[in-house]
């Protein structure tokens, strides 16, 4: 039954301007996975690991590629035994399966119209070995996480693709991914030491166990591999061609050179698995040799008048010791200047012919780095540079340069015409011919009216470019096909290059494998495929296909959706930071599902079912904190759209109640404080039962759970004089309701008293207005889409701030980061012109900024607080004060930001409404906290601290409370 005040999921409707699409999910999928298949899968992997609802099938159907297939079912196997059972099931039932990890594949290699197998969820875990020289990992480990851990030892994994922050090690191995610094000796094929994988037969092979064990496990396959090895080695022309083709980057085909580089069949198979895109089996463990990191680094932009000049100096730059050399052309640079703050300002007015190289150099120490800089200056002394070299050595500056480079995939895709596809091509040429090849590429792009945007890993001859055809229109589909045919002539015939360098073959290049390798080697590819997967159960159509038109099928449409999310290219960069990623859906999936609603005809049963499931999965479970906009290359804030949809689905009675609550917030605040004080005297189990009953009757999105243990009720605010105050202090309403954490020591002070005392000790006194009760930043209303209640509180607080601050003369210090961020980023959007003018005169600062800028230098630290875990909030990230938060903690002791720390999912009161959101958001951070041994736990937002205590079991406090304790004068008898 519908609960009182519950939202109407169908009120979200369809996106304005959407049109029915030919690839809309058909009505037959409305009930999700067929019951018999669902039961079979549940018997193999367990009920909780089968995803068979309509929404599940749709959200997993999309990845970063331009293709889409709707799977019959999605499963998350728990271990190798589950995978082996799935393999045997497919063989006995005539079904097929495809593997997917992060969903960053660009060529359709991770899509399935049958069983899609998630090899990320349960396949995490890594171990650094040999003091960093090696790393053992499972396939679901995010590459960026592994790189961060290895970095502490002075090492890195060789491949470093632009998707490092989201792609997994399993995907890197399956695609033999490259990247900016990944020379051939550093790629996965050359750095793999051992692996464990599951074959289509269901056999689990551990290469570390040796060839004799493999021979016992798979005697027929062992013999076939040995026989093929001998025949291939005897074919000298084939041997020479393999050596030539793999002397540059090439992922368009299979690594038959494994039969040349290894003798034993088990290790031949190990190398064959690299770059095989899941057509031979699935890797479940791997041991990789790593490469040393330079101790110090620097980056510089080398800007030149034209592409030819840029290309001609790539080889000399690499000879001078550069570790990376990335090419950008003028069009790409101009677009970057409009979006990235780290882009040179001069790029806005570049000549259309200009080009640039992003160069990175490294050294063993500062002197070594200075010599490397001088070598580069000497190398480029006669080059026609558009501006002098400027070396960047700060971490922030270098990070900014690489963020720009890595974000170009999303940035360029965002400006594509409405409804067009977004296809990333990835070719490789002999590095010494990259200038001529790039010019030819741009000429070909111009011929077919595609964007003339070329970029790539110039050091390795690897270029990327982007195509934006309307593949729902036959004439443009034919033009795309003709373009690829001409591209093959250019790459294969003229330059003897590779049609795919590092992104894998997928289905996108499967028809061109024969074209690139010739009939003899192509038949060898099929022979190896058939000996390993004789029933063809793995990834049909991927890598090898006899369908010459497979690359022109199953394109996904891009119907119009809400303006804020419409530019999304579904790259998935947002997913690792999304609080709900382990519970329901991610930002990319929210957009994917919304696009499917846009494809559907009005009145569709599929549409109605999607809307119903979307309410909880996407809307209710969104923290709406904008965290997803930070890693997004084009800063898409999916949470902003979820707020809009909340407003649309809110019932009229709920909207009226929200406005009434805002108007009576002073009374509500007093009641809430009294309720907390009373609740601390009642058994927590009784409270939880009562709260859950009320949530079942009214709405779980309006009434919170009762997390235990509750903090103490807030005491009365300290009295402070206005005269002589250097700042107004606004205690957020959450800190006026909740006091010290439960079980606090007797000498602990609450946050308002800590801040007042810190101001006094540092000679920077603050004043708390007497009439502060009843004022709120408005986030409790804005986050739920209650526009009228939010507008009321926004106007009230700005008017009061203006009065308290003497027309903006005094700064206003806010003691909760989410409130500070809301006051700076959201409040102004709903103000009338007169009130907006007052807001613009205010200087609102977070307590972290105040402590950093006005207090810490005047505050004697008298006690070392030991080891301190610091939880940065999403708001500290948005406001750019996370480093300040960590620095303040370091002033008190030794600060550590736990691995996996990000948005905790509390999001004001949302984590109290949906504790499962906090549990999802903090999974990795909780593991890191559990492995550490910390004396104190600090943050900068009370609800985040409460949520973390509720889920992680550690008492988190404000950094200001810790500073008060660390600077408390020692009283001697």
From TrEMBL:
Iron in keyword set: yes
EC number: 1.1.2.4
InterPro entries: 4Fe4S_Fe-S-bd (IPR017896), 4Fe4S_Fe_S_CS (IPR017900), Cys_rich_dom (IPR004017), FAD-bd_oxidored_4_C (IPR004113), FAD-bd_PCMH (IPR016166), FAD-bd_PCMH-like_sf (IPR036318), FAD-bd_PCMH_sub1 (IPR016167), FAD-bd_PCMH_sub2 (IPR016169)
Domain (FAD-binding PCMH-type) ranges: 67-293
SUPFAM superfamilies registered for this protein in UniProt: alpha-helical ferredoxin, FAD-binding/transporter-associated domain-like, FAD-linked oxidases, C-terminal domain
Cofactor(s) this protein cannot do without: FAD
Domain 4Fe-4S ferredoxin-type: 557-588
A Gene Ontology molecular function term of the record: helicase activity
The organism's place on the tree of life at top rank: Bacteria
Entry's Gene Ontology BP terms: lactate catabolic process
A Pfam family reported for this protein in Swiss-Prot or TrEMBL: FAD_binding_4
UniProt keyword annotations, A-Z: ATP-binding, FAD, Flavoprotein, Helicase, Hydrolase, Iron, Iron-sulfur, Metal-binding, Nucleotide-binding, Oxidoreductase, Transit peptide
Keyword flag Membrane: no
Residue ranges of the region described as Disordered: 1-26
Entry's family note: Belongs to the FAD-binding oxidoreductase/transferase type 4 family.
PANTHER family linked to this entry: D-LACTATE DEHYDROGENASE, D-LACTATE DEHYDROGENASE, MITOCHONDRIAL-RELATED
Name of the protein this chain belongs to: D-lactate dehydrogenase (cytochrome)
């Amino acid at each position: 039954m519908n609960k009182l005040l519950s939202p109407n999921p169908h009120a979200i409707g369809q996106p304005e301007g959407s049109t029915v699409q030919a690839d809309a999910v058909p009505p037959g999928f409305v009930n999700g996975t067929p019951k018999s298949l669902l039961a079979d899968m549940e018997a193999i992997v367990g009920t909780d690991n089968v995803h068979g609802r309509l929404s599940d099938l749709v959200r997993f159907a999309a990845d970063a590629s331009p293709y889409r297939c709707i799977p019959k079912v999605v499963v998350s196997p728990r271990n190798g035994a589950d995978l082996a059972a799935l393999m045997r099931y497919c063989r006995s039932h005539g079904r097929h399966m495809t593997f997917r990890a992060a969903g960053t594949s660009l060529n359709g290699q991770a899509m399935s119209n049958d069983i899609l197998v998630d090899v990320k969820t349960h396949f995490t875990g890594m171990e650094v070995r040999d003091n960093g020289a090696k790393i053992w990992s499972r396939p679901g480990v995010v590459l960026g996480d592994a790189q961060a851990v290895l970095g502490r030892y002075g090492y890195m994994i060789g491949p470093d693709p632009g998707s490092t922050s989201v792609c997994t090690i399993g995907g890197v191995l399956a695609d033999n991914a490259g990247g900016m610094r990944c020379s051939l000796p550093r790629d996965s094929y050359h750095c793999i030491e051992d692996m464990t994988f599951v074959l289509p037969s269901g056999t689990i092979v551990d290469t570390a166990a040796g060839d004799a064990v493999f021979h016992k496990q798979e005697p027929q396959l062992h013999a076939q591999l040995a026989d093929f090895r001998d025949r291939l080695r005897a074919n000298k022309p084939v041997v020479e061609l393999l050596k030539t083709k793999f002397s540059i980057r090439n992922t368009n085909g299979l690594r038959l050179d494994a039969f040349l580089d290894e003798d034993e069949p088990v290790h031949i198979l190990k190398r064959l698995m690299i770059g095989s895109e899941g057509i031979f089996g699935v890797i479940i463990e791997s041991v990789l040799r790593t490469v040393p990191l330079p101790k110090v680094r620097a980056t510089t932009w080398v800007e030149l008048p034209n592409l030819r000049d840029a290309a001609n100096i790539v080889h000399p730059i690499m000879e001078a010791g550069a570790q990376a050399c990335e090419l950008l052309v003028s069009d790409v640079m101009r677009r970057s200047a409009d979006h990235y703050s780290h882009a040179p300002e001069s790029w806005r007015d570049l000549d259309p012919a200009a080009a640039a190289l992003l160069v990175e150099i490294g050294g063993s120490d500062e002197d070594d780095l200075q010599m490397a800089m001088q070598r580069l200056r000497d190398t480029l002394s006669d080059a026609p540079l558009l501006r002098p070299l400027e070396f960047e050595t700060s971490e922030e500056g270098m990070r900014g340069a690489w963020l720009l480079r890595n974000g170009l995939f999303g940035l360029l895709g965002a400006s594509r015409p409405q409804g067009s596809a977004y296809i990333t091509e990835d070719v490789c040429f002999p590095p010494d011919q990259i200038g001529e090849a790039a010019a030819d590429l741009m000429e070909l792009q111009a011929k077919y009216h595609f964007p003339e945007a070329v970029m790539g890993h110039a050091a390795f001859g690897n270029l990327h470019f982007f195509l934006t055809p309307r593949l729902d229109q036959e004439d443009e589909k034919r033009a795309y096909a003709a373009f690829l045919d001409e591209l093959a002539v250019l790459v294969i015939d003229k330059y003897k290059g590779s049609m795919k360098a590092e992104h894998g073959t997928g289905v996108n290049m499967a028809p061109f494998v024969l074209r690139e390798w010739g009939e003899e080697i192509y038949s060898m590819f099929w022979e190896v495929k058939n000996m390993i997967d004789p029933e063809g159960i793995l990834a049909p159509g991927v890598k090898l296909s006899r369908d010459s038109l497979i690359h022109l099928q199953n394109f996904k449409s891009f119907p119009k959706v809400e303006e804020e999310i419409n530019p999304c290219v579904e790259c998935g960069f947002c997913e690792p930071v999304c609080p709900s990623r382990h519970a329901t859906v991610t930002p990319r999936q929210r957009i994917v599902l919304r696009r499917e609603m846009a494809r559907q005809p009005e009145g569709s049963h599929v549409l109605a079912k999607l809307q119903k499931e979307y309410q909880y999965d996407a809307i209710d479970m969104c923290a709406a904190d904008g965290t997803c906009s930070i890693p997004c290359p084009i800063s898409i804030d999916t949470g902003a759209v979820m707020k809009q949809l909340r407003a649309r689905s809110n019932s009229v009675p709920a909207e009226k109640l929200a406005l009434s609550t805002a108007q009576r917030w002073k009374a509500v605040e007093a009641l809430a404080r009294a309720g907390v004080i009373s609740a601390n005297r009642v058994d927590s189990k009784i409270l939880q039962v009562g709260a859950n009953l009320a949530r079942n009757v009214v709405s779980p999105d309006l009434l919170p759970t009762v997390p235990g243990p509750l903090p103490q009720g807030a005491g009365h605010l300290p009295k402070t004089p206005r005269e002589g105050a250097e700042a107004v202090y606004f205690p957020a309403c959450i800190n006026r309701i909740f006091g010290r954490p439960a079980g606090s020591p007797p000498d602990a002070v609450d946050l308002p008293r800590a801040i007042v005392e810190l101001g006094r000790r540092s000679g920077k006194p603050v004043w708390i207005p007497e009439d502060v009760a009843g004022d709120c930043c408005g986030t409790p209303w804005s986050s739920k889409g209650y526009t009228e209640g939010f507008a009321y509180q926004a106007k009230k607080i700005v008017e009061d701030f203006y009065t308290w601050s003497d027309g903006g003369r005094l700064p206003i210090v806010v003691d909760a980061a989410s409130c500070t961020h809301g006051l700076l980023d959201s409040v102004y959007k709903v103000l009338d012109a007169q009130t907006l003018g007052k807001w613009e005169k205010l200087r609102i600062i977070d307590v972290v900024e105040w402590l950093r800028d006005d207090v810490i230098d005047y505050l004697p630290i008298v006690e070392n607080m030991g080891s301190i875990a610091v939880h940065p909030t999403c708001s500290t990230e948005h406001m750019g004060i996370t480093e300040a938060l960590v620095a303040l903690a370091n002033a008190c002791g030794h600060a550590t930001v736990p691995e996996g720390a990000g948005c905790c999912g509390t999001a004001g009161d949302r984590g109290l409404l949906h504790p499962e959101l906090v549990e999802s958001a903090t999974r990795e951070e909780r593991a890191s906290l559990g492995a550490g041994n910390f004396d104190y736990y600090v943050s900068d937002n009370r609800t985040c601290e409460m949520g973390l205590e509720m889920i992680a079991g550690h008492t988190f406090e404000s950094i200001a409370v810790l500073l008060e304790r660390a600077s408390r004068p020692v009283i001697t008898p």
